[in-house]
Specification:
globular; binds adenosine-5'-diphosphate; GMP Synthetase, Chain A, domain 3; seven-stranded mixed sheet; alpha/beta; 26 strands; Rossmann fold
């Protein structure tokens, strides 16, 4: 027997209308590429979004059409998120840090109809435009006075909105209609498109609002440093409106001093981003001897948050939420809000737990399997590949049958490529990406664990652990490190000594290679792929000695 309840499709336009109706005074504050700060209330935001929606329709955008964005975090990008999806189009966010080759592939593969870009990204288009579809319409996200010179025809965003009505009856369609498209950074092969639906986006927004309860308090200000151009800024463009948060958008200025100043001035309570961003902010906090005035909550994810970073924030009375997820999961899968019983535990124990990747979000199931596909227990000891299932997880890839066929196992679970354990309290511990694990003498060493403890050494600013070829042990771990400013570089013996507090002797790295910077991926993670390329000529010390 079916329940007798109404069925309203879960559409993104309802999130907008709800936010505006419930919190008309909430604001979106943006650092603009024009160089100033722009403020709009949710009501003004809605009016402009509606104007954009009308303009998009005038340019022929229909249900299912892809409209690309190449933009920083800012109010116009937010307007695009809602304006495009609201009329049934697909907001295709593009990461400006992708290589030209990937960029060309993605735009052609998606067959975008229009491409909206910030002035900053004009050079990207200049460089690749001959390889993009001839009928692609470019719109530069600024006003007439700031329109840059371009060798390609481009419309002006503000002119496009001018004179358009501020009223609309949002169309109603099936909630399974696509609303967003984001390609994985594709460390191997071509990038693959995760095609989000209105339903999955709506559910994901609700899901994180109930998990990360510290952030989502009406009237608080949130700083999404995590980009809108990739993985939907972890859902903040939607969940902020559900809770009535003031959104503070950093634009292109994501260095420590700029973030500190913005957070201070806008009284930001909660800030979300990848660990590399927080390293910059923590350095500025140290320099100034205080934290930004109202700062009390940070969400870290995208790669493992080093224990030393979590400890530094918690000592400043900034509560850390350590999240894990991926493009294919909308993207959040687990979240590090602490259980009630943790309040009784020591500071050290709480940091230990916060270093784990948290517990699963509502509606995201997790399973661990061994190499033969057998399920492993969640006992905190068994380590296996992590599979996920839920309404916010991809069922395949956009226009990519080959990758879609491989994405799910026979029972319909998505293989994450991460190797993990889960303890009896439900805490996930990501050991590594399967391809980054270091295999020494048939035993595995977690590169993440090595890196994290190495980065806790005061003389180390950044450290990446990789495996290098060894005739006897197959692979041996080495560290590639950036020294902290003004610090004396520790010797390998000193580093091994430091690491031996948590690692067995055979797990300790054999060498440190000092570099000025560790190459990052398009999403701000250590790029092990490029690191391995850079170290192509590296020879293990033992082999050097015998040579
Ligand atoms: P991108 O964001 O670069 O497109 P993916 O979606 O491929 O990347 O990134 C997802 C991967 O990032 C996960 O499979 C995992 O390996 C890693 N990751 C994300 N969050 C964490 C975390 N908190 N701890 C450890 N690894 C993480």
């Amino acid at each position: 027997m079916k329940g007798m309840m109404m069925h309203q499709p879960l559409l993104v336009s309802e999130i907008l209308e709800f936010g505006v109706g419930a919190y008309p005074r909430a604001e979106i504050v943006s650092v603009r590429t024009e160089g100033d700060i722009h403020r709009e209330t949710y009501v003004e935001f809605r009016d402009r979004t509606v104007q954009l929606a009308h303009a998009l329709k005038k340019h022929g955008v229909e249900l299912g059409d892809r409209v690309a964005t190449l933009a920083w975090n800012g109010y116009r990008h937010m307007e695009l998120y809602y304006g495009i999806s609201g009329i049934g189009g697909i907001c295709h966010t593009i990461n400006p840090r992708l290589s030209a080759e990937q960029f060309i592939y993605i735009v052609n593969h998606a067959e975008d109809k229009l491409l909206f870009l910030d002035t900053t990204f004009v050079p990207i288009i200049e460089a690749v435009k001959d390889h993009l579809p001839k009928d692609l319409v470019y719109v530069i996200m600024t006003d007439r006075a700031h329109m840059p010179e371009t060798s390609f025809d481009a419309l002006c965003y503000e002119e496009m909105l001018e004179g358009q009505p501020t009223e609309i009856e949002w169309p109603v369609f099936d909630e399974n209609t696509a609303c967003g498209l984001c390609y994985t950074s594709g460390t191997t092969g071509n990038p693959k498109g995760a095609l989000y639906s209105h339903r999955s986006t709506y559910l994901h927004a609700m899901m994180i609002s109930v998990m990360q309860t510290t952030t989502f308090q009406e009237g608080a200000s949130v700083l999404p440093v995590v980009p809108l151009f990739h993985v939907n800024a972890w859902g903040l463009p939607y969940s902020s409106l559900i809770s009535g948060l003031n959104m503070v958008m950093p634009g292109p200025a994501m260095d420590g001093p700029s973030l500190f100043k913005l957070m201070d001035e806008e009284k930001v309570f909660s800030a979300w981003g990848v660990p590399t961003i927080w390293q910059g902010l923590l350095a500025e906090i140290k320099k100034q001897g205080r934290k930004p005035e109202n700062f009390g909550d940070v969400v870290v994810g995208g790669s493992a948050a080093p224990r030393s970073m979590i400890e530094a924030f918690e000592k400043l009375d900034v509560s850390v939420g350590h999240a894990w997820g991926m493009t294919e999961m909308s993207p959040v899968g687990t979240h590090g809000i602490m259980p009630k019983w943790m309040e009784e535990e020591s500071f050290e124990t709480r940091i230990d737990y916060k270093s784990l990747q948290g517990r699963r979000c509502l509606g995201v199931e997790l399973k661990l399997v061994d190499e033969d596909g057998n399920r492993l227990p969640h006992d905190g000891k068994a380590v296996g590949e992590l599979f996920v299932r839920g309404n916010t997880v991809v069922s395949g890839y956009f226009r990519n049958e080959e990758a879609s066929e491989k994405a799910l196992d026979a029972d319909g679970w998505f293989g994450t490529g991460d190797v993990a354990s889960i303890d009896k309290d439900g805490f996930l511990s990501i050991q590594d990406r399967a391809k980054d694990l270091i295999k020494s003498g048939g035993e595995w060493i977690s590169s993440i664990d090595l890196e994290n403890l190495a980065m806790a050494h005061p003389a180390i600013a950044q450290a990446a652990a990789i495996g290098v070829k060894h005739p006897r042990w197959d692979e041996r771990p080495i560290l590639v490190a950036v020294a902290a400013e003004g610090a004396e570089k520790p010797s390998i013996e000193e580093m091994r000594d430091h690491l031996s507090s948590e690692f067995a002797k055979w797990q300790l790295p054999d060498d440190i290679v000092w570099v000025d910077a560790i190459p990052l991926t398009a999403t701000g993670k250590f790029s092990k792929l490029n690191l391995r390329k850079e170290l192509a000529d590296y020879v293990h010390p033992e082999l050097r000695e015998t040579a």
